[in-house]
Amino acid sequence: MSPLTPRYRSALTCGHCSRHIGHVEWTGERPAARMLLHPIVGNPSAVLVGQRICCPHCGGPSFAELPERVRENALTAYRGAAVGRNPLPRAS
Ligand SMILES: [Zn+2]
Questions:
Q1: Which of 26, 53, 62, 63 is 20 to 30 A off residue 86, Cα-Cα?
Q2: Rounded to two decimals, what is the model's pTM?
Q3: If you measure from the C-alpha of residue 2 to the centroid of ligand 1, how many angstroms do you get, rounded to a whole number?
Q4: What distance in Å separates the CA atoms of residue 16 and residue 24, rounded to the nearest whole number?
Q5: Centroid of ligand 1 to alpha carbon of 15 (angstroms)
Q6: CA 80, CA 73: separation in Å to the nearest integer?
Q7: How far is the CA of 34 from the centre of ligand 1 (A)?
């Protein structure tokens, strides 16, 4: 099992067409001032406080699903080890 990070992620779904829009990520227990939107298409961008994220297909409002804790994958865990964090136990 990969170690947990202080980051959280919440999937975004359109309230009109139910399409998956992407997800937002932030650091800390609660959605913070600095969130990053990871759309399905395109590059991640910062989300401003109070900014509405609209569906790129129909312009409908997006709804964030229950946040989940982001786990490090093997690659970021390896990078983290280089800056003084514990490396992952070797996967068997
Ligand atoms: Zn939509």
A1: 26
A2: 0.69
A3: 33
A4: 19
A5: 7
A6: 10
A7: 24
